[in-house]
Every structure is written in C-alpha cells, then in structure tokens.
Fold this sequence. Notes:
The protein has 84 residues and is an all-alpha fold. It contains four helices and no strands. Helix 1 packs antiparallel against helix 2.
Amino acid sequence: MTSPQSLDALFCVISETLRIPRDKIAPEIAIHQIDTWNSLTHIELVVTIEERFKIQLSEDEIVDMTSVGEIQRILTEHGVLASQ
Length: 84
C-alpha cells in the first residue's frame, strides 16, 4: 500500500477536473458554489479520484461527495489521504 497523499494532491485533482484555480478550493466549498461542478463533472471527478488514489468508491460515498470537505473525509477514511 502506498503512503497517504497530502491534501494538496486532492486539491490539484479537484482544480484540474473542475477547471478552477487551486487557490479557490477549500474544505468548506460545496457543490452548489462551483459553476463547473455539475452531474457530468461530478462523475469525471469520481473517476479521476478513483484512478489517482487507486480506490473504489461506494455509491453512498459518491452521493455524499457534495463538498470538498466531504471528499477529504471520505479519502481519509480510505487511508489514501493523510489526516490533517
């Protein structure tokens, strides 16, 4: 198993996938606050996270991913993101 990655690794994935500046990403940012975060880019984000962090997300986890903080929590629970 690889060692957990930094929060910055997650923020980079979100920035690339949602096409928003890295400095606009924070744990409190929710799906409704980012214009480019829609149903299509949500699936793209899920696939990118699964590939980049080598995990399989459950349907419940995918549905729960409504904020950057929730994504952070889920990845920390999977052990692929270092605890902050």
